[in-house]
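Dear colleagues,

For the upcoming journal club I promised to circulate an example of a predicted protein-ligand complex. I picked one with tryptophan because it came up in last month's discussion. The inputs are reproduced below in full, followed by the predicted structure.
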Amino acid sequence: MREGTNTVVRREDYTAPAYWIRTVDLCFELDPAKTLVINKMTVERNADRPAEPMRLDGEDLNLTRVLVNGESVSFRVENDQLVLDTLPDGSFSLEIRTTCAPEKNTQLSGLYTSGGGFFTQCEAQGFRRITYFLDRPDVMAVFTVTLKADKAKYPVLLSNGNLLEQAELPNGRHMAKWHDPFPKPSYLFALVAANLVAREQKIRSRSGRDHLLQVYVRAGDLDKTEHAMNSLIASVAWDEARFGLSLDLERFMVVAVSDFNMGAMENKGLNIFNTKYVLANPATATDVDYAGIESVVGHEYFHNWTGNRVTCRDWFQLSLKEGLTVFRDQEFSQDLAGSPSARAVKRIDDVRALRQFQFPEDAGPMAHPVRPDSYQAIDNFYTATVYEKGAEVVRMQHTLVGREGFAKGMALYFQRHDGQAVTCDDFAQAIADANPGSELAARLPQFKRWYSQAGTPRVKALGRYDAPSRTYTLLLEQHSLPSTGQPSKEPYVIPVAMGLVSREGRPLPLQLEGEAAPVGTDRVLVLAEARQFFTFVNVDSEPVPSLLRGFSAPVTLEAPLADDDLLTLLAHDPDPFNRWEAGQRLALNRLLAAVQAGGELSVDEAFVGAMRSVLRHPELDAAFKELVLTLPGEGYLAEQLDVVDPQRIHAVRESMKQQLAQALRDDWAWAFEAHQVSGGYSPDPVSSGRRALANLALANLVQDAALRGDAVWPGKALQRFKDAGNMTDRFGALAALVNAHAELAAPALQRFHAHFKDEPLVIDKWFALQAGAPERDGSVFARAKALLAHPDFSLRNPNRARSLLMPLCLNNPAAFHRTDAAGYVFWADRVIEIDSINPQLASRLARALDRWKQLAEPYRSAAREAISRVAAKPDLSPDVREIVTRALQD
Ligand code: TRP
Ligand code: ZN
């Protein structure tokens, strides 16, 4: 069954296809047990390639007929490919009939059933599980699709593009015919046949064209679609305003499905979404959920231009669409957030995620360039590196050419490549060509090392002030460690946004040696050599350097700033990102020192005082305060160390949390009371920031009270849990109890479950909260394990499986890494079990032990044993096989 295991696909082996498929006429007779697919293609030999057989991809299909120009022909099926040896010259028609079994498709790739309906997921290689095809993104065809199905069970029949025709058929069946005028690769094909209802909205675009927007959900969920629709309307307006890109279809559909491997999918005109990124009302969704919906709706909509109108030549170019589209959705959310402070909060959130997920990836066995050189399972390369680091690589281009310059570059990109399947080189070339005088244009080949070299570069900064000459010299050095397959690296082009701040916190004018006058108080230095000096003149007093403002490059900055410098930046840096960063540094330095000293930590008054001033600050936004007062995560701490003892890191961080809870008790009480939000629920940045800070305050107050045996704050939390007017407050109160107060948490959890038992997305939160709670005595692990047997738990629904397994295995190091290795045994069993159901899901979980080599004993040996046990299974999917093989390499 499983062919292709251990087959490596290489970027350098790319060749254009031997045939083009110009049109596809698909007809589906939908039946859960046996669906008939009739696929009529017009095919043309690619005259630029030598004559060779046509090899069509297929997987798990029953082939019943092959006709060329209406006549049967001889064919072979070889390694999952249908091979046609003798074909007419020029253009011909090819008809292929196959059947498949959607109800047996537990992988959720191709055509599958969910909640009694039919749905598809074709990216990256799911279309071959629907019919034989040249299933590669550089083969683009015009699709016409006819769906036939039982009318009562599947009243809604959707596919890409425009509806041509709808009719009744005998035997209670009906049909619909769709046509998509835009040629597209097979991975953008989609169909839906289900019992759904839609929220609809008519809009008129800037250019005066009318469009119909639809959000399809199950009948009971219509009251949870308002935010998704608003996000979609905002996305259409934003892409027109910022990039001049309009919606190119009369109808744009979003469909929610509860069984889905990822967040959502940008199929042309028919986006299919995980329910998690569509459904929200104030009673069921938190502020974080609302923000996630806005981002993902934006992301998929923006793909319509960056991904669909211009697509990828091959899957190595995945970041061409994903990095760029993540950059676009990040900018969208920042622009919607409005105020500089709210923009910075979004930026901090994004950088935190990058550091938490991408930095470890770049330092571990799955390290790969933004444009990878090889893969075994392409689904394994939908990674934080391709997405989030890819977005940073686009952001650096934006920084180097400026906002206007970038918009010009985008315009040139579409002028050159609309309707084409292209490469990351084509993108960077367009941005550079549109900005001939820029640093990017001047250094394009070197800049592109960001696409080809893996690993997180380190930038070391050293400053020296010379009072007599009133100069400040900054030495910047870059250095990159080897990664798998890349023993040595060449210097990058690194934009370092920066400023100098006086000891009193004043921004200083920036005049480099040789410049006639200062150029503002904020500028971008371009570090392009291994080491470079930058000398500032007319500097009145010894400054504090504020480097890498806004996190202008995805690097690790090593700047030996003293506590006093960090306190100055935390109090005064005009760049909010670096202000936050200074606070994180203060915490990090203390945490790391304590971990290295063996575990004892006692927080000093300077640090407590600084945190108190932020918390009590009269001008700072609540959302920003919440970020400053949230300590760096255990995963980020681990990445700063050569050898990791997860239990020690956890203990030290918990101890700091506890001491801050105690030392700031009155301040937390004030913060909680002062940040209540009254009136109707709105997910705007100001209200959500206030709720976030109030929830953090409450968590601290309950934690502190629990330790003292004080019942007041736990009681208040319980009351708030019961009375809350929205899910953010309710869940915040529940989390405060679960994290610190076992006796009150148990009945609250029960009550929460009973109340939301018919809301699957809320039950997911219920599982996740318990599996992600701070471990104390092994009880969190024990409970998570017991929850496997809960009647609501299932490994078949990805959201549910993830809700329990990901918080435990990927985000709760103290519960997962146990001296008795029970966490690893549990992990290996689940990876193996899920792999036979859904390899894509299994291989995400398989990555929980990526960083095993960094672990201290006894964790390290136990982890290797668990990985080896998975690797020893003979019939692993290529997905999981690739992850465990790489983990065990050298
Ligand atoms: N292109 C999708 C996105 O980022 C990603 C995606 C959705 C996907 N479903 C998938 C990738 C399944 C691989 C497999 O918007
Ligand atoms: Zn995407």
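Two points we might discuss: The pocket of zinc ion (ligand 2) is lined by residues 299, 303, 322, 325 (CB under 6 Å). The two ends are 30 Å apart (CA to CA).

See you all on Thursday,
B. R.
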